[in-house]
Amino acid sequence: MDTDNRVSVTELDSSLNCIDTKVSVFEVFGLDNFRNNSNSWEDKLHALSLENLRFVSGFPTANLVLTITNQAILFNLEDTRGTILRDRMYILQDSDRVFGAYSEFLKEKLSSCADPEWLKQHFPVIALYNITQHYCNCTSLYLKEQRKIFEDSKVALESNFSGKSLHVLREARQSVEHISKKVDEIANNFVACLASDTHSWFQCENDAAQSIVSEVYAEEILKIVKRLQQEANNLLQECRSVELRYTSMLEADFVRLLSSFLFSRFLVCIFSFYTMLIEFFHSNFFKPTPSSAATAGFAILVSGIYISAFLAIYAFQRWLTRKKFTVLFL
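Above: the chain sequence. Below: its structure as C-alpha cells.
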C-alpha cells in the first residue's frame, strides 16, 4: 500500500539542494511510526485529500499544509518553534509543475542569506514568501499580456465592428476569468492558512523577535496576493463591460437582420395563402350574374390581405423585440 500512496515532490533540503523524487504520504505526514497500527494510519490517511490538501492535526509532528488549489506546499515542522523536521521542505507537484518549477528560483533566492541558522529558523515563511512573490510576478506579466490583447480588440471594435474582434475579446476575457478565479482561491486559502488558529505555526513562544519576523512575512504574503487579486478582478470587470456593450450591439443587428428575413418569408406565406383563397372564392362563387353578397365578400377578402399582413407584422415585431438572443461564436 505504501507504493500506491507515493506522491511526486520536489525536495528542498537545508543545503538548498533541489531533488525531484517520490515520497510516501506516510513520510510526508509523519505516519511512519504508525504503520503497525492499521486503524490509526488508515483513519488518518483517509482524512487526507491529495487533490485538495488542508490543515491536519493530531499527528506525531505538527504538520502545516498550505492549500493552493490543487497544488500544495508542505512544511513538516518538528514543533511550534519552527524547527524543520529532517531539515527539509516538500513542494507537491501539480500537472503544470507550477510551484515545483520555482525550486531553482527559491534555491538562488535563499542562498544569499548570510546566516544559515537564521535561515533555518525562518525557512518556512521565507520560502513561502519567495514562492508567492515569484508566482504573483509571473501571473502579473501574463495579465499584462491579456490586457494588451484586450486593448487591441477594443480599438479594433471601435474602428471596425466585427464578430472576429469580439471573439478575440471574449477569449481574452475567458483567460482573465480563469486567472481571477484561481487567484481568488489562492487568496482565500492564504487567509484561511494564516488565520489566528493556524498562524501559531509561524510563531515562536520563546523568541518574540522571531515571531515578529514571521508576522511581517505573513502580512507581506497577503498583500502580494491581494494586490494580484485586485489587478485580475479589475481587468476582468473591464473585459466584461466592453464585451457586454458590443455583444448587445451585435445582438441588436442580429435581431434586425433576422426580423427582416423572417418578415419577408412570413409575408410571402400570407400572400400565397390569400391567393389560394381568392382563387377558390372566384372559382366557386362568381357566377355570370354575381350577387351583391358575393361581390362584397370578394372585396373584403382582397382588402383583408393587407390588414392581416399589417397586423401579423406588428404582432411578430413586438414579440421578436422582447426576445433575448445570445450570439455564440464557435
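The beta strands are 6-13, 18-24, 63-68, 71-76, 88-92.
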